[in-house]
Amino acid sequence: MDTTETLAAAYLKSCGFTKIQYEPDGNVPPDFLCDGRVAVEVRRLNQNHDGGTGTKGLEETAIPLWMRVRELLQQLGAPTYGQSWFCFYRFSRPIPKWKTLRSQIEQELKPFMAISDPQSFDKALGSGFELKVFPASEIYPTFFVPAGHSDGESGGFLIGEIETNLKLCIAEKTAKIAKVRTKYPEWWLVLSDQIGYGLDDFDQKMFRDQVKITHNFDKVVLLDPRDHSRAFEV
């Protein structure tokens, strides 16, 4: 098994299945058969780009950056003057080292927090990174609320990119299992989410509010590739 299949196997075990078979019918679908009745197909959910040194997943840059920006916004503290602010950013590769970029972001956001009547702004910080701040629709626990990002190579928002690539994965797997679909009564699709890393509670709510996915699997699940227990059912 590869790392994606190992992740899926751990998730399936946590679902309470007592018998999990890997490739029960050989090198054809399904990837797993659980308790003789639930057939499971597994795949990575990701994007790709060519950075000049070979093809790499977009998530290798985008996700660590997203996590660091979110953490920074949380660390900046609670709202003042009864207002939270959405913070959105655009970036293109190559991006600066995080130490440099963090300093640039803080130089814009910390003084902004001290203004009694701040105004929305959209500013390029250099090195292909642009920061946009605008009023949040409600008061959140933090002053700044992550509102997503746009990747210059993907050209889309996090939620939008998950939606686009999820539809592609579903279509691909639906076609792949078509000839054997009737062999088992139930089919799941389990995806290692290399775009949103399973999505946190805030992003899950945004996804459910904004995205409608139609499919004929009995279950489609996104897994955080770092933790099989963090599962989000589409």
Outline of this structure?
Helix content is 32%, strand content 29%.
Number of self-contained structural domains: 2
What structural category do the secondary elements indicate? alpha/beta
Shape: elongated
Which CATH top level class of the largest domain fits? Alpha Beta
**Proportion of helical residues:** 25-40%
Q: With helices defined by DSSP (H or I, 4 residues minimum), what is the helix count?
A: 5
Can you give keywords for this protein?
2 domains, Endonuclease, Chain A, alpha/beta, four-stranded mixed beta sheet, six-stranded mixed beta sheet, 234 residues
Q: Mind explaining what this structure looks like?
A:
- The chain is 32% helix and 29% strand.
- With 234 residues, it is an alpha/beta fold.
- It has two domains: 3-47 and 158-233, Endonuclease, Chain A (3-Layer(aba) Sandwich); 53-151, no CATH class.
- A six-stranded mixed sheet has the order 1-2-3-10-11-12. Strands 7-8-6-9 form a four-stranded mixed sheet, covered by helices on one side. It has a two-stranded antiparallel ribbon with strand order 4-5.
- The longest helix has 20 residues, at 158-177.
- The radius of gyration is 21 Å and the shape is elongated.
- The protein starts with a helix and ends with a strand.
- The relative contact order is 0.18.
- Mean pLDDT is 87; it is low at 48-59.
